[in-house]
């Protein structure tokens, strides 16, 4: 019985030490069954062990807890890895998902090593778990591979376990000797410095040994069978019963301190309550200054030896953030001696940007008393570099639950961070190249592509300047032209500076022309004085340049500049710029080809427009020549006809008056004969009756008057023809506009009269008081003729189609309204009809050459075009058409009133 209790007590001591570790620790026995899960493991999963269970029941419960907490999809793989290693007693690692207390599955990296007894016999496994959920999946797989670091860590853990097992074996040997001397147990109890109680669940004293404690602690008399409340003051007794309840519920040791007034005064005591089987409790009480403190220190030293041999940094820190302990490997990892760290605040060792992260983390642990996820922060190495670390921390409490300090473990994740940074930079470079490639495909604007590339490179490299230069070769003195630059706002613009020649930067220019890359980490190290002076004049402290040579022969360069001291250019930055220059060279060739194509297309388009304009001008000139020739021929014909008609008409018109006088005399003579020779002879009487002499005397004057009127009419028509043709007038002269309009209407009189199926067209003259206007009379008459002819055609077309009178404003009879007026120094002539009107499309093209809406053979489409040329080009005026369907049409002519006459 004593042997089993001692073994169980030994296991409990070990477990109590493991429970203080910030890691999740588990153990199995030589039967491959799980036999122990430390407090951190149970707290992470939110599981609890049943109190008062037997060893076999406890092992079965632990195995079930482990199986239920592992993700079902990962359980079989974990067991397979464990059993394979178990058969050969080898270390192993495994990754699986473990359900946290809040129900979320977290990825766990589980590292285990075999345990061996002092005699070398295999006794099981011990392992520890680390939450790696925050590690990217691409790096998580690498974590599961047994790296040198992990193998070293496993080996060191195994070594620490061997030391612990060796010490356990020694203790077991001592316990074996003690078990062999069970008869000495009572004597040992007698010499113990601690007061010894064995209690039941009710707090009744089952066994009592005062040890070396003063008898005055317990009242005189037999205390066995009595309750602690009967033997101690009420306050102390209540505190003991609270501890008893806690031990029975948790099955863990409970310590507390208290003060007791004895005969010699107040004394401070420490009570330790440890659970036994059968709901019994052992109580050890001693003065706080007794040697039990040395035993505790010894146990702490054993655990510290394990901690200090681990590769991870373990630390303890006060609530004020002062390191009270750091493991010795701090020196190996960070370069500082332990003495330089202990007693110092954590703030100087943490990156300034990460101090608040750590402070907030410790504050959350202190206030919530809940386990927090690991944090990442940077720690400063003694050489000035920054190392990334991931840390888990928790609090240490006293028996009363008060927080004493922080303890934590941190491990170096710099390699992982660097891999992440490299991966991110690679992704950024890939994204930049993709963007440039997409822009090259989407836009052939070279300036836009160069501007984008320069801006992107500066943002990616975080440099002071980035610029692109063209090498201008076709100048008398070749030079480097700055095209675009991106820079910090505090620096002057290089584009405002004078271009650089090859003589000024001979070294840089020569290397660029030879397709060489220039990498200057420090301008002070440049050997060429001219190039160094040139760079220093611009404030450059570091310089990198990559040439761009296109297939078409252009030469350019990308220049990256730092103005803030030494700046090493990395190989990956050079590789990125090389890729960019390749893309840019392709873009330049494509853009140039596109520009050449656009220039050729524009040239062809310009030539086509010139040909179109020439053709249009030729057509207009041809039409004008044809019309001019036609009008000239018509004018000559009209003039000739008028001349030929004018002579006989003048003869007739000149002799009618004589004929009227002669006829009057003859009729007077006949009257005299009738008066003097009466009665007449029968023959004369018969002739008078036959010719109806009375009617003849009345009608003959009327005939002569009609002949006079006809001759006058012919004379007026001949005069109108002569005035319309104006062959006798050349150039601009003062002209009566109203006379030209009236002559034109006279010539069109026949079309204005009513005819079968066509009503008479009324002409309304609304003439203003116009003085003579200087113009080309014949040409203006031609304009009036064209406009009036079109108006008559439009009115006749409406009548012929049966559409006359459409629209609310249409008059019941066809009308042509002519109005004239003076406005400032211009004469306005309006000719409007109330016909069908025209659509907007027709109105826009009404002055185009050869455009007509009339049937084939009736119109040529040249009348209005010629009129436009006469008014606009020959007289410097304007002609407008105002029309809408159903609203008729109005043509407004505006010509200058005081035009310079031709001489």
Describe this structure in words.
It is a single chain. The chain is of the alpha+beta class and about 900 residues long. The strands form six sheets. The chain has a six-stranded antiparallel sheet with strand order 18-17-16-21-20-19, sandwiched between helices. It has a five-stranded antiparallel sheet with strand order 2-1-5-4-3, with helices on both faces. Strand 25 and strand 26 (about 825-835) form a beta hairpin.
List its traits.
alpha+beta, 903 residues, 28 strands, 5-stranded antiparallel β-sheet, elongated
How many DSSP H or I helices?
A: 25
Walk across the major sheet and give the strand order: 18-17-16-21-20-19
The percentage helix is 40-55%
Biggest beta sheet attributes: 6 strands, antiparallel
Mean pLDDT: 78
**Low-pLDDT segments, ≥5 res:** 180-185, 289-293, 806-811
Number of strands: 28
Q: What topology does this entry show?
A:
Layout: H1 2-19, E1 24-28, E2 34-37, H2 39-45, H3 55-69, H4 72-88, E3 92-99, E4 105-116, E5 122-131, H5 137-144, H6 148-180, H7 185-191, E6 195-199, E7 205-209, H8 228-231, H9 234-250, E8 254-262, E9 265-275, E10 281-287, H10 292-308, E11 313-317, E12 323-326, H11 329-334, H12 338-341, H13 355-368, E13 375-380, E14 386-397, E15 403-412, H14 414-442, H15 446-461, E16 465-472, E17 479-487, E18 500-501, H16 506-513, E19 518-520, H17 529-537, E20 542-549, E21 555-562, H18 571-676, H19 682-691, H20 693-725, E22 733-735, H21 737-747, H22 749-752, E23 762-766, E24 773-775, H23 777-800, E25 815-823, E26 826-833, H24 840-845, H25 863-874, E27 878-883, E28 889-896
Helix pairs in contact: 1-6, 14-15, 14-18, 15-18, 18-20, 19-20, 20-21, 21-23, 23-25
